[in-house]
Design a protein that fits this description.
By secondary structure, the protein is mainly α. The chain folds into two domains: about 40 residues, no CATH class; about 40 residues. It contains five helices and no strands. The longest helix is centred in the last third of the chain and has 26 residues. The two termini are about 40 Å apart.
């Protein structure tokens, strides 16, 4: 919870996007320009996920759940037998 008086809250609401930007702060804070080739503000990957990957999500989810169940079963069983 953050307690802010009305005047300060209004200042945040009225600030332009180029002055207060979560995305810009995130990119600068994590130095994404060193991790990714190109402009980190380019939303190419977001568009691919939204369009191509989500089209087949209903057929992918059951496979993903099976894989997660198998991985957890293997991991927890190996931890139990090794005494970890």
């Amino acid at each position: 919870m953050v307690v802010v008086d009305h005047d300060h809250a209004q200042e945040l609401f009225d600030a332009p996007e180029d002055r207060i930007s979560f995305t810009a702060a995130f990119n600068d804070g994590f130095s994404l320009h060193y991790l990714f080739h190109g402009d980190p503000r380019d939303d190419y990957h977001t568009r691919v996920i939204r369009s191509q990957l989500t089209q087949n999500i209903s057929s992918t989810i059951p496979k993903l759940v099976d894989e997660l169940n198998a991985a957890f079963a293997d991991e927890f069983e190996s931890n139990i037998t090794t005494g970890m």
